[in-house]
Amino acid sequence: MSKQEAKGIAAGLLFAAILLTAYYFMFSNVTAEEENQLTDAAVEQHLEENGMVMLKKEEYDALNEQKITTDKQKQDDKESEEEKEEESESDEPKKVTFTINEGSTSLEVAQSLVDQKLVKKSADFIDTLQDMNKETAVQPGEYELQSDMSAAEIVDEITR
Question: How far apart are CA 15 and CA 38, in angstroms?
């Protein structure tokens, strides 16, 4: 076999390999794409096997709107119950034993008053202390306070 013949065989093999590769990439992708296409039946079967459901957009939107309405109604009910509780609590003044420890600051006292629901805002109580010039006159001890007392009345009581 001569060099010329060997080159011809090599060129023929190379040309055949190129043709086969081109055919594979052009025509085999079409069949692979056809195999990977999902049908509605296949999707429904997969969902059913995994315990899932499929909803149309309209159904989803209706359910979502219903959930929002229900959540809002629950929130409104909760708020009205809290208002009723506050009203019932505010109807009857309660007697509260309030303790001021040695070394407590005015801010700590104000926060304790808020925690025990004797005043609504600690800043208002501090303002009342400052207006009455008694911010340093708070005395440690135990005090019997009423839940309906004003901030000024509480200041008078704890600064004796």
Answer: 38
Instruction: Give the Cβ contact number of residue 125 at 10 Å.
Output: 23
Helix (H) or strand (E) holding 56: none
The answer to whether residues 121 and 72 touch, using CB atoms and an 8 Å cutoff, is no
Q: Which two tokens stand for residue 119?
A: 């005043």
pLDDT digits (tens, 9 = 90+) for 85-98: 766 655 577 888 98
pTM of this structure: 0.44
What does the alpha-carbon distance between residue 136 and residue 8 come to, in Å, rounded to a whole number? 110
The answer to whether 122 touches 108, Cβ cutoff 8 Å, is: no
> What tens digit of pLDDT does each residue of 106-118 get?
889 999 999 988 8
